[in-house]
Amino acid sequence: MLTRVTCDRIHPSFGAYAQGISVPAGARLVMTSGQLGIAPDGSVPGSVYDQAGLCLANALAIVEAAGLGIANVVRLNTFVTDRAHMAEYMRARDDWLAGSDHLPASTLVIVSGFTRPEFLVEVEMTAAG
């Protein structure tokens, strides 16, 4: 069973994510490669929100292919190309987690870019179960 770790000796989380997640011994880990906001047909939406939704959906599809689900996600590593994109990514992440009482650990990093200029966000996902 995954357990959310909260420490009252540090500043509270800035958003919908856990300060830490404890994974029990013997759990199987699934780690995705970074997923871009690209649809199966190759289209790339123009908004950060829509790209982030695809990134999360694509990464979760890999986790599900391994037999796990959203409740097994223990960590999100996210990369955006501009500080201005943070709010839209966070809104997409919050919408993605809506209806779930599970919050993964999360890191958000600003990077200079990706392989193609239309890509604005990338998400890596780690799951355990």
UniProtKB/TrEMBL annotation:
What GO molecular functions are on record for this protein?
A: deaminase activity
Cellular component per GO? cytosol
**InterPro entries cross-referenced by the UniProt entry:** RutC-like_sf, YjgF/YER057c/UK114
Protein origin, superkingdom: Bacteria
Q: Which Pfam families match?
A: Ribonuc_L-PSP
Family statement = Belongs to the RutC family.
Protein's recorded name: RidA family protein
Species this protein is from: Histidinibacterium lentulum
